[in-house]
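Letters spell out the chain; the tokens describe the backbone. To illustrate:

===
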Amino acid sequence: MDYRLLIKLLDIPDRLSPPARLVHGEVVATAITRADLQDDASRSERSRRRVRQMQQHMRNLAAAGSAWEMELASRGVLDEGMLEVAWMEDHATDLIQRPRG
């Protein structure tokens, strides 16, 4: 997905700084900070780590002769799972490290 289509740069004069919080009635909008992105990145990393553990466990079961996991491995399901984890890693890193502006 091309996220550039979702970004709108505001032309703010140098003498002003953008507000970190806007309120209109009951609606409150706050600016997203790098700290927010770091929180998301660490949650994402924990999730990927757990998926990798599950994948390894399933591979171990397949190696031990478990019929269910052997069937999944023979159909390539376990390999697809690892590809999905790699895709998540690439895209999460890209979102966190994308330069501003």
Q: What stands out?
A: The first strand starts at residue 21 and ends at 24. Residues 9 and 100 are 10 Å apart (CA to CA). The beta strands are 21-24, 27-30.
